[in-house]
Write a structure and sequence with these properties.
The protein is mostly beta strands. The protein contains 2 helices and 16 strands. Strands 1, 6, 7, 8, 10, 13, 14 and 15 form an 8-stranded mixed sheet that branches. Bound molecules: zinc ion.
Length: 215
Amino acid sequence: MNFYVLHNPSSYDTSKYAVTDYEPVGKSNFGDATRCPECGEPISMLPWLPPYRVMLEPWTNRYGDIGFGPYEELLLTERFVERFRQAGLRGLEVLSKAEIVSVKRRGGTRLEGDLPSYFVAIPTLSSTKIDLEASGAEFETPVTCGTCRGGLLLRHARVIVNEATWQGEDIFYARGMPGLIITSQRFVSWHLQSQINSGVLVRSEKYSKNFYSSK
Ligand SMILES: [Zn+2]
């Protein structure tokens, strides 16, 4: 099974993707972070609670089917959500509609089409684990909790999902590399077929990061 990392296309060829960001407007409400059942450390960001008031920032002349923002939640067009459900894909919790307070143009020419409806949604926090050794992950201090495998991640050479622990989701956050959205091969085929216009998908074996080049 191949897995892929889904991320914001803003650092890629922006003529190819409908790059769209969102920025919460006003003070955001948050719930409690999910904690590791073994060590009690937080294993998610604080969940964003309604109202979902946002400023939409399209960087090209199209509205993106996926809007990326500062939280683990994504903004997804109604088209995305409907097609995802129709395809029987798994791993997405659709919360509720976002209220688009304003649209801030970040580039491109005139925006094509009407402003679509957006839903706030979050990929499942799965118990699927990243194989940190096979991923070449380096931590500041050795990982002590075998359940959440938390710690300050300095860098990784690739992202290898421990397939034996995979719960069958098509889009999810995994244990060991928080904040990284992982998708299945099925999601990638669907993304292409449905002509979802935003979100870069990189083969997980090829996805490396160096967060602290000085350490
Ligand atoms: Zn833990």
